[in-house]
């Protein structure tokens, strides 16, 4: 049984023929498109390491069947930076030591990008912690993660303001 | 995961026809189903992908102020819909207390209603489970069962329904619109999930092929908007299923309770509506004594199914606490920790 889907991945169109309907978005990215930045942690939607944006919203790619995503626009960690210029969330994670081993980091960053776009946290660290609770960090870098999310949110707001004024 | 046929129907009618074949399952976001397929608990021979069906992703208001929520509306979109959250605040709070932001972005209204129990023995194919394999027994009875049911359980099954969303829906008399091989019908959310009895495998009132296409909340439920809460006790602050939860809604008139609604979550195989407790509050002033008495009535029939007697007292206190908080008025803003009884606001009490 062959299923075909067309997706936009990190800004570029892809036509993909799936030989097996069981392929999750996570496995499609890692095993078939060689985008290994998105990590497989628990593979059950509990850890958040596989977080990507689908149509601008953060989801767990391990719990999404690729075959159901025809027409979707997908952004992974590989699609965030603008050439050599890091995305503000990436820069803030480095600045605030928001990682130790780094395995959860792509998921944390994609989740933070989604959180900032959703716009429900304000500048309240409690809301950031609550809204980042779908991303587990076994090294326990949570303190830096919350700081990084809050700073990146400010940076992005300033960028948006400058862009609106320009 | 087993192999399966993947069907992409173009209409509800096509979907219903495809899913009426034995061994079929509907696929919406898949946040519960795919997980169950990965662990071998669900083994559908055919998945009917309904995610692209037109017209099921809308929130529509009728002239009276009732709402019809399409089955494919995502949990987060519903919770953050400004009018919806203002009109049915306990439902929004329940939604935001469930799962994680990623899962809420994906999970649908219909999928939330029809999710399976998180009983560990149901999820472990090496364990006996009457719900998964009828007649095989119930390993939960002699197992780790501190989080299992205290109401409505049977000697066949002590699992609970895990949904937060369904608890205020049951309290507010919400109705599921169901489309099936023999047409469209309404099923009250309170009647959608079945208690286990002798047939725990029959977990809900849907016939094969039937599809939830929408959920309606009646206009009169909006009368509770000013005095509603959903409270949820968890074993960690966030991203956990309820140990016990309570949705309460009060209609206040002249300082007295004109109408009360109470439903409990994580205590039974369905959201547990406490009608006798509701009736006990009518006409009373909102006092601690009245709330404690109502909570006693709500849990009067509860009995432990294992090492979970503590849940009964916990549920009693949570009902009383939720009633007390609701009587003080729905919070103006969604709390930073939705549904948490543990406030981070300085000065607020954390003792029930």
TrEMBL record, chain B:
<dbReference type="InterPro" id="IPR051312">
    <property type="entry name" value="Diverse_Substr_Oxidored"/>
</dbReference>
<feature type="compositionally biased region" description="Polar residues">
    <location>
        <begin position="341"/>
        <end position="352"/>
    </location>
</feature>
<dbReference type="InterPro" id="IPR002346">
    <property type="entry name" value="Mopterin_DH_FAD-bd"/>
</dbReference>
<dbReference type="InterPro" id="IPR005107">
    <property type="entry name" value="CO_DH_flav_C"/>
</dbReference>
<feature type="region of interest" description="Disordered">
    <location>
        <begin position="329"/>
        <end position="352"/>
    </location>
</feature>
<dbReference type="InterPro" id="IPR036683">
    <property type="entry name" value="CO_DH_flav_C_dom_sf"/>
</dbReference>
<dbReference type="InterPro" id="IPR016167">
    <property type="entry name" value="FAD-bd_PCMH_sub1"/>
</dbReference>
<keyword id="KW-0285">Flavoprotein</keyword>
<dbReference type="InterPro" id="IPR016166">
    <property type="entry name" value="FAD-bd_PCMH"/>
</dbReference>
<dbReference type="Pfam" id="PF00941">
    <property type="entry name" value="FAD_binding_5"/>
</dbReference>
<protein>
    <submittedName>
        <fullName>Xanthine dehydrogenase family protein subunit M</fullName>
    </submittedName>
</protein>
<dbReference type="InterPro" id="IPR036318">
    <property type="entry name" value="FAD-bd_PCMH-like_sf"/>
</dbReference>
<keyword id="KW-0274">FAD</keyword>
<dbReference type="Pfam" id="PF03450">
    <property type="entry name" value="CO_deh_flav_C"/>
</dbReference>
<dbReference type="InterPro" id="IPR016169">
    <property type="entry name" value="FAD-bd_PCMH_sub2"/>
</dbReference>
<feature type="domain" description="FAD-binding PCMH-type">
    <location>
        <begin position="1"/>
        <end position="222"/>
    </location>
</feature>
């Amino acid at each position: 049984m062959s299923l075909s889907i067309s997706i936009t991945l990190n800004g570029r169109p892809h036509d993909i023929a799936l030989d097996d309907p069981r392929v999750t978005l996570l496995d499609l990215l890692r095993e078939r498109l060689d985008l290994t930045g998105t990590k497989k942690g628990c593979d059950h939607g509990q850890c958040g390491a596989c977080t990507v944006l689908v149509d601008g919203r953060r989801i767990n790619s391990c719990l999404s069947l690729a075959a159901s995503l025809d027409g979707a626009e997908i952004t992974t960690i590989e699609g965030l930076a603008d050439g050599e210029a890091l995305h503000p969330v990436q820069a803030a994670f480095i600045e605030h030591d928001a990682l130790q081993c780094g395995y959860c980091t792509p998921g944390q960053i994609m989740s933070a990008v989604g959180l900032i776009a959703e716009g429900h946290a304000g500048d309240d660290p409690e809301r950031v912690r609550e809204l980042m609770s779908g991303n587990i960090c076994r090294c326990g870098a949570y303190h830096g993660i919350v700081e990084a999310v809050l700073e990146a949110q400010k940076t992005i707001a300033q960028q948006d303001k400058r862009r609106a004024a320009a | 995961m087993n192999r399966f046929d993947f069907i992409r129907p173009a209409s509800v009618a096509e979907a219903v026809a495809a899913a009426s074949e034995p061994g079929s399952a509907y696929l919406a976001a898949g946040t519960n189903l795919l997980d169950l397929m990965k662990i071998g608990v669900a083994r559908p021979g055919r998945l009917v992908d309904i995610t692209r069906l037109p017209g099921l992703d809308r929130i529509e208001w009728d002239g009276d102020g009732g709402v019809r929520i399409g089955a494919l509306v995502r949990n987060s979109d519903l919770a953050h819909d400004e009018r919806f959250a203002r009109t049915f605040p306990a439902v929004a709070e329940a939604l935001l207390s469930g799962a994680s932001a990623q899962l809420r972005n994906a999970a649908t209204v219909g999928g939330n209603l029809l999710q399976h129990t998180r009983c560990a023995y149901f999820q472990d194919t090496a364990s006996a489970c009457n719900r998964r394999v009828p007649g095989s027994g119930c390993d939960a009875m002699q197992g780790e069962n501190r989080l299992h049911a205290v109401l409505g359980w049977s000697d066949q099954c002590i699992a609970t329904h895990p949904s937060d969303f369904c608890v205020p829906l049951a309290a507010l008399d919400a109705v599921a619109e169901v489309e099936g091989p023999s047409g469209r019908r309404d099923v009250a959310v309170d009647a959608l999930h079945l208690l286990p009895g002798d047939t725990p495998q029959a977990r809900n009132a849907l016939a094969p092929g039937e599809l939830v296409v929408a959920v309606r909340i009646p206009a009169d439920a909006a009368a509770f908007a000013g005095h509603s809460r959903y409270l949820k006790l968890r074993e960690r602050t966030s991203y956990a299923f309820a140990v016990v939860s309570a949705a309460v809604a009060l209609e206040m008139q002249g300082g007295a309770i004109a109408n009360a609604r109470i439903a409990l979550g994580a205590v039974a195989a369905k959201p547990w509506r406490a009608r006798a407790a509701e009736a006990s509050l009518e006409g009373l002033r909102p006092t601690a004594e009245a709330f404690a008495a109502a909570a006693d009535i709500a849990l009067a029939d509860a009995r432990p199914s294992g090492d979970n007697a503590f849940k009964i007292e916990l549920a009693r206190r949570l009902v009383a606490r939720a009633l007390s908080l609701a009587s003080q008025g729905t919070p103006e803003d969604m709390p930073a920790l939705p549904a948490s009884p543990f406030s981070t606001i300085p000065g607020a009490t954390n003792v029930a």
